[in-house]
Amino acid sequence: MIKARSFKGGIHPPGNKDLSSKQPITRLPAPETIWVPLCQHMGAPSRPSVSKGDKVTRGQEIGAQNGFISLPTHSPVNGTVKSIEDFPMPHRRTGPCVVIETESEDGGQVFPKWDDYSNHSPAEITERIKLAGVCGMGGASFPTYVKLTPPPDKNIDTLIINGIECEPYLTADHRLMLENPDDIILGMEILAYTLGVKRCLIGIEINKPDAINLMDEKGCCVLPLKVSYPQGAEKQLIDAATGREVPAGGLPLDVGVVVQNVGTAAAVAKAVRDGEPSLRRIITVTGRGVVSPDNYDACVGTLFSDLIGKSGGYTEDVKRLISGGPMMGISLYTDGVPVTKGTSGLLVLTGDEVRDVVESPCIRCGKCVDVCPLRLTPNLIALAAENERWKLAGDFGALNCMACGTCSYVCPAGRYLVHYIKKAQDAIRAGKEA
Amino acid sequence: MAPTRRFELAMSPHVGASQTTRKIMFDVVIALLPALAAATWFFGPRALLIVFLSAATAVTAEYLCLKFMKRPVSFALDGSAIVTGMLLAYNLPSGVPLWLPVIGTAFAIVVGKQAFGGLGHNIVNPALLGRAFLMASFPILMTAGWAAPEAWSSSTDNSWGTSGIVQEEMSTIPMADAISGATPLNVLKQTFDLDASAENARNEGNIAEAESLEERADGIRTVLSSNSTYMNLLIGRSGGCLGETSVILLLVGAIYLVMRGVLELRLPISYLGTVAVLAWVFGGSGWFDGDPLFHVLAGGVILGGIFMVSDMVTTPVTPKGRIIFGIGAGLLTMVIRRWGGYPEGCSYSILLMNLVTPLIDKLTLPKVFGEVKKNG
């Protein structure tokens, strides 16, 4: 096997993955009532195409695509629409949901099965992936079909499948690689065929040797990567895999690369081979604040409270509920929030696990500068932002920050660096200059 | 399960390293302790008393400032004031009157630190500013109080001069009794003076006197570069500021700091490396014949290199900036040692570099990821 590669900077937070990494994925039936969000993807929410009282069938489109960066939404169950209302969301305050009373989950065929994808043109496949509502399942939930339609002047030569899962605690991608490698590999082939690329890699951190070996045995070109957060960030992964730096403010397309998460590859395989829209996802429920951490295959629209119930409920000292991982996840005030296509994990932390430091002044130790994977100076950006000097923050490169949280993690003064930098980004994007 | 609403909201990341400002500061205090033991051993309990007074004054002054400015007084116990107090004391001769560290530390905290906004906002290292204040205000006290290093030790061997140079060996040099040197660097400075006098004598045609002066200077240099001198400097058996002499115990502190992830090595290495190289280039009588080992072991560069060049608040945050800072401070140190009015240039060099730290940061901002197209 080739030597594990990495990028410059980064940190090594405790993985805590053994809480759930040995738990096989449990397939959960759809709960009695589900809240299917119409804004599961990045971009414009789908336009509801059903109304209260309508009967819906599994796989039926209940929200229509609404613009280029948007996707259709499908019903994961057969049932009756109870209402369409705003509901708390994992990634934003609230969003429109189609509330469905579940009757059954028996599957009719939604799209025709395509046994051999190579009988279909890349354009047909891209259309299928769009109609199936597939979006990135690693976290950002970018519509996958958009990534597959690069502008004609971009020459794409490499596809990287992201099996890094560098967020501590999360094990959904790891379990998927172990339990369903064939779908990932088929999805990878379909994506490579659609993009017309020859070079296709799957990046996995070396803390998952079983997944590396399995993918290697299956004949994949595995790229083992050192354990370092944020190795799974698109730009850092591309850097480690190809030595190419995505230009500041640019996209992977600009260096001829497309990156897709393993979960996305599996969803692509299901959409193309089985004609199955994106209705379910693998989600890790973990942390010491939950009784028995586990990995689930759950319908989108399942409430977090249902998942917690399946995991034995909360422990006594539960403190924080997080959608996603501990580094970039969003803390929620309630567990009455539905699973979306982009929800990779539900993390419940106790007071002992949460970092509890009172913020104090920057002592200019420079640790944030040493670890920033984008080579920014987070302390200086944060200082500028604190004083509302937005232009200065922009000059320090505030807009390049991807909010990976590496700087805040190491900061001995407990400064909310990510918060200040995001504040600067919002102000700069809103056109404030001071 | 029915939805519940009882969770704390917070910005990501939700986990973090265990290191805190307080832990860093107390790690520095711990790292300073071995050298304090050496100071007590060689200079007597007075050294310990000075350090204690200094640290206590620092905390008190910080507390009063915070109280006066209505800021949280808990900052007074974050350890940073103790570090400032200890470092200032380490930069004093052990024979100074006891009120000197008190007013020096009070000045350091009030003017050097709190006047600029407290922790993290001071422009120059407060301890060094306090020392500079004392040097300017009480120059005699600051340079006359050198105690002989064996004052408290059980050693009855009195053949060691205060400068840590074996008197016996010195006596082999013609007119050695004319050499008075409280610290090894004072002795070195005198060789430069002897060189200058020799050159004058030569220019005046007084060849015999010139040769005699040169012989003395060379003799002293031979002793300075002897193994016994090195050994004394290493263990701290030499004259000097109370906390700077024991190189080996300061290095023990440095190793502790590196292990705790507190000491960033770019600064001390670039600083001490520059001192060593320039010592060889112009630290001797002519060009390229200096003794780097003597220059690194003698005086305050080890203390300065580990605890003051690498002071986080007053040095650059960028990786390149740190190397530039270290090189700049090393250069200034050696220029002052060789041509300046003081035998030691460590503290002034660091103070001067502290002033240009913001500029260094500004000029060495790292290139943001993707700003230079590698495959463009």
Written account of the structure:
The complex is a heterodimer of chains A (434) and B (376). Chain A is of the alpha/beta class and 434 residues long. Chain A folds into three domains: 25-104 and 277-350, Ubiquitin-like (UB roll) (Roll), CATH 3.10.20; 115-274, Rossmann fold (3-Layer(aba) Sandwich); 367-429, no CATH class. Helix content of chain A is 26%, strand content 21%. Chain A is built from 13 helices and 17 strands. Chain A has helices at 122-131, 144-147, 172-179, 181-195, 209-217, 234-242, 262-274, 304-310, 367-371, 378-386, 390-395, 406-410, 417-429, and strands at residues 25-27, 33-37, 47-48, 55-56, 61-64, 73-74, 78-88, 94-104, 158-162, 199-205, 222-225, 257-261, 280-286, 294-299, 318-323, 330-332, 345-350. In chain A, the strands form four sheets. A six-stranded mixed sheet of chain A has the order 1-14-13-17-15-16, sandwiched between helices. A four-stranded antiparallel sheet of chain A has the order 2-8-7-4, with no helix packed on it. Chain A has a four-stranded parallel sheet with strand order 11-10-9-12, sandwiched between helices. In chain A, β7 and β8 (94-104) form a beta hairpin. The longest helix of chain A is centred in the middle third of the chain and has 15 residues, at 181-195. The N and C termini of chain A lie far apart (53 Å). The relative contact order of chain A is 0.15. The mean pLDDT of chain A is 94. With 376 residues, chain B is mainly α. In chain B, α1 runs parallel beside α3 (80-90), α3 crosses α4 and α11 runs parallel beside α14 (301-308). Mean pLDDT of chain B is 88; it is low at 151-159 and 175-179. At the A-B interface, α8, β15, β16 and α12 of A face α1 of B.
